[in-house]
Amino acid sequence: MAKTVLITGASTGIGLATAKLFQQRGWNVVATMRSLEKKSDLMTLDNTLCLRLDVTDSDSIAQAVTAALEKFSTIDVLVNNAGYLTSCTNLKKPILQRSRKTFRLFYSQQA
Q1: pLDDT per residue as tens digits for the range 5-63
Q2: What does the pLDDT look like over 57-93, one tens digit per residue?
Q3: What CA–CA distances, in Å, run from 97 to 6, 83, 102, 109, 111?
Q4: pTM of the complete model
């Protein structure tokens, strides 16, 4: 049985290349991105599921995980490639506040 990888930020760059690499190596791939309009050629690949997921939105995370589990029954590996853009006004906040927000974003989500 093939293993399943869930990749965040898979619409471009490293995330897209990672999704293609895992798919070429026989894995089931759950390629997630904020906008499904950017899915490019991922939809045409076998054993690949493209889903909307915004790492700052708990509901979209839950929906994506549920859909992935329904399709492939398991998620063996998470590649947490997605990031989020902060505005320059956030630079006025102390670095500890920004660091805590980033930490909570990437480490407090439960799948």
Answers
A1: 999 999 999 999 999 999 999 999 999 999 998 767 898 999 999 999 998 888 999 99
A2: 889 999 999 999 999 999 999 999 987 655 555 555 5
A3: 29, 17, 9, 18, 25
A4: 0.77
* Residue corresponding to tokens 């805590």: 100
Question: What top-level class would CATH report for the domain 4-83?
Answer: alpha beta
Could you tell me if 51 and 64 are in contact, meaning their C-beta atoms sit under 8 angstroms apart? Answer: yes
- Point out which residues pair with 80 in neighbouring strands: 8
Q: Are 28 and 45 in contact (CB under 8 A)?
A: no
| β partners of residue 6 | 30, 78
DSSP characters over 64-106: HHHHHHHHHS---EEEE-------GGGGGS-HHHHHHHHHHHH
